[in-house]
Amino acid sequence: MAKRLRWADLPGSLIESITARTGPIISGHAVTDGKNSPLAAALETRDGRLFVKGLPSDHRMVITQAREAAAAPLVKGISPALLWQFDEGGWNVLGFEHIDGRSAHYGPGSPDIDLVVELMHALSDIEIPAGPGPWKPIETRLRTYVDDPADALIFAGQSLTHTDWMPDNVLISHGQAWLIDWAWATPAQSWTDPAFWLLRLIAHGHTITQAETIAARLPAYAAADPEHVAVFARVNRGMWNEIERDHPIPWAQTMAATARAWAEHHRA
């Protein structure tokens, strides 16, 4: 996880590069949600607000910036628009439309659940164009968590999936759910995104049955082969056990316990 830089601590050359795209900056403040980008700030300019995020150009995770830029033209209307990008002065930076919203609530009875289902319906129709790109296919991402790497091929597809459905990545604004942070955008079967999401629903108080019923409102998940879903549950158990081992902090422990319970549910 990257240390978040305060706006006042950014190099002057970096602020100059940003200002060249935005015009004079009236104010800027670091955004506290999220941990993966050293630069994440909301800016107030003469022409309105925007959000910038960035990494040093030589950072090992700079590929995530390329994924976000590649996803941007595909997700118009469900994600903030990408306004500009640059890689200069040792920094790779993206400038986005600012959405004034709050993080989604995933608890039982939350009205946000319906909004996220609508968002997922829209997302399920989007495919990644053929050809090279900055993507890491899901079968590559998850192959270390299956008994036979070939088993991961059951998740393979060309649907654009987000894969990281933590509540901070879904903004609720004026009756719409907006999806942000495409760092882990992945070509996959479209049912895998509802499956990633239902783990979050369980972690926020839904029973497994309730969460799976909500996920089944998405046709792709409802039609998924139950055996494939069971394999996916075991994959998530292995992945979250690893995350918990490497980062034994409360949210990781909660997600690991949730993934274990879901995998046991499918084993039974």
TrEMBL record:
Q: Which organism is it from?
A: Saccharopolyspora shandongensis
**InterPro entries attached here?**
Kinase-like_dom_sf
Specify the protein name.
Phosphotransferase enzyme family protein
